[in-house]
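Weekly modeling sync, notes
Attendees: AB, CL, MP (scribe)

Item 1: holo prediction request
CL wants a bound-state model with zinc ion before deciding which constructs to order. AB pointed out that an apo prediction alone won't tell us much about the pocket. Agreed to run with the ligand included and paste results into these notes for async review.

Input as submitted:
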Amino acid sequence: MKQEKIYLKDYKSPAFTVDSVNLDFNLNEDFCRVVAKSQVRRVHPGEMRLNGEELKLISIKINGQQLNADQYQITEEELIVPSVPDSFTLEIETELQPQNNTSLEGLYKSNGIFCTQCEAQGFRKITYFFDRPDVMTSYSVTIEADKAKYPVLLSNGDRIKIEDLGNGRHKAFWQDPHKKPCYLFALVAGDLGVIRDTFTTMNGRKVNLEVYAAHGKQERCWHAMDSLKKSMKWDEEVFGLEYDLNDYMIVAIDDFNAGAMENKGLNIFNSRLVLADSNSATDVDFHSIESVVAHEYFHNYTGNRVTLRDWFQLSLKEGLTVFRDQEFSADMTDRGVQRIEDVDALRAGQFAEDAGPNAHPVRPESCMAVDNFFTMTIYEKGSEVIRMMQTIVGRKGFRKGMDEYFKRHDGQAVTTEDFAAAISNPNNKDFTQFRRWYNQSGTPVVSVQENFDAAKGEFHVTLEQSCPPTPGQPTKEPFHIPLMMGLLDKSGKELSLSCDKITVNTDGKNLMELKEQKETFVFKGLKERPVLSVLREFSAPVNLRWEASENDLYFLMQNDTDSFNRREMAQKLGLRLFKKMIQQARAKETLKVDDRFITTMTAILADESMDPAFKAKMLQLPSYAVLAQEEAVLDAEAFYQARTTLRKAIAAANRAQLLNIYRKYHGVEPKSREPKVFGHRALKNQALAYLADLHDPEIMEIVNKQYWDAQNMTDRMTAMSILADSDSAHREKALQNFYEEWKNDSVVINKWFTAQATTTSRKQVLEDVKALTKHPAFNITNPNNVYSLLRAFGANLVRFNDPNTNAYEFYADKILEIDPKNPQVAARLCAAFNFVSKLEPAMKEKALTQIKRMVAVESLSKNSRELLQSALT
Ligand code: PHE
Ligand code: ZN
């Protein structure tokens, strides 16, 4: 295996283009033959190098002439033909073993269904080809297979015909009218159930929609279908983008490394992101399905029609498409609550990544394994970068820029610079400095200083930015940071601003655009000291250092006109309190809970005017993931003490209130999927979780009753998770029951694994997880099983880093077991070691021992190696 790095600076435009390719698949139980016939044209002089891995070459022909062994060379990763004509027909026949393909990239089999996954570099496991996104080609495909076993034969584009071959086999013909890079190629062959619907586009074209799943499960696909139609409509309304084929197909597959894949006209999905009904799926599942279906649909323009020049540009499509799906979700549900959720996820995951050993820029400059680019930085921080562009130019300006982007680049393979230029030019903005967001890694820190000069009636806000060093980037240049802001008077009224440095975007939002390392904004004409509200809507992915007074924070929490900041202030207050309590715990002192914080929580609970979904967010305390970033030392036990003590105090002080909330909403419209009802359920289940922290038998009876009487999965899962994390006598029976009920359902049984892997009160969780890896329901070759049990455990900061156990050793064993079979899945587990530098010496030693042990394995994949190695430097 090659272990070298590749670099963006080495990019060269392709030496050959392919005008069209015809792929002919002959699928059998123990082998598959692929004939790829391409029309190739030379662009630059030189030899022809084709990518290919783990392939058996049967023959290679140029213009019909078979090449002899001395006319080409085969290495582990390439097929090289030193001498070819300027324009020719290339015909390559390869043989594959999809039935033995455990990496789940290229062509593989899942539960008897043939399917493909080509992003990022899986196509080279199907045939020798120019496996790079800037080679865009027209595809025609034929698939031949046994008719009884594989009645459904699918590929991209238009269904031309299906022929019965008479010998028990049949053959399907597909043609994709749009050019595409090979990572968007897809094929599915199997015995599948399907649901059908149609969508009429804004220009009156009728599109056939099909969602496929294992036989018998297709009725659980209606929510995905519904989500697809909503996405198609939204993209027309918001961006004027109309679907461009006659058919749109989604296929649900049980064994899938990632969430879903946007193959042109034929999306392949992890079945966990398609299958749902109220018995089997939680409110959160319904929401995720809606957003991922939308995400993959939106890729049709942002990713497929305009694609990537090279993989370093991955955020060009992923950041933009995440931004689009977040905006879609905001329009489908509640904009304020959606923003809170998106920022929570960004902070917990991406900020940690950006502060860890594998921090990288949104547009990276080097890598070992391209697959390792599918990170929260590329996706979620990438989305924040796009959001900042929209904030700077306003929504109208952003739409103008998007129109310009498609006008300039439809059908092309482009770069993040091209995108930034398309947005900035028509808006007459200069994004030269802004582009540093693409090149510099790390989360910038913005410190805020306020000063009120009563005599002059001036309020001074001084902002100073810095960015911590990250791997390969010891120092940084200043960023262009848009900070949305406002000033409030004593009564909570928004003041009009008199400051010549403020920009007002076309949406009427006030921005402090920080460009220098340090800048002061002077607000004039103020009779009294205003209260500053800054970083509204989380307008930039930064960490604020702002020593605002407690009074101001409480004031903003109650009065800010920006709902994001109201909740943000609650988090800030929670964090300040946690910091003290963690210190007390580390010093073995008694933990002191702050009365004012409790009283405020009581007031929030009592506030009838507050939207329940938002209230649920207000009541949430900062997560362990956030604590781990804020604290210099990851002291799992101290974190746990602080968090449970505070939760208990809130519950004890508000027992009656919490029970009232619970009773008010429990059992009301249990089958409804209205966003409003989701909010009610979120709030009442949160009330129940707080109450459960009291370890009061009466409460545990309520939890148990909710488990057994539940009429939807949200209620059932909430109750099961609470029981799983308790020593209640009801625990075993509920877990047993859940298993019996869902043991044959691969999607649902994962919830059972996660509930047990994420317990924090239960000290023996490592033993539980070990036992579960031996459970008949656990299959280590299934990515969902691995993620829901092992990755969930690795993200359980309290128990994964429990000093009384050695979870690291067990975890390393599992990584080493998975890595040879499926490097992508193994690599996704490695992030559990990102916090190593924050561990106390004894724990750090234990972790480093395991990392070194893994890295010492010579056959370790480059995927895992790249991520682990950095933790050692
Ligand atoms: N491109 C997919 C997405 O929409 C993610 C993916 C990456 C899927 C790699 C499979 C393999 O985000
Ligand atoms: Zn995507």
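Recorded for review: The pocket of zinc ion (ligand 2) is lined by residues 295, 299, 318, 321 (CB under 6 Å).
Action items: CL to compare against the apo run; MP to circulate these notes.
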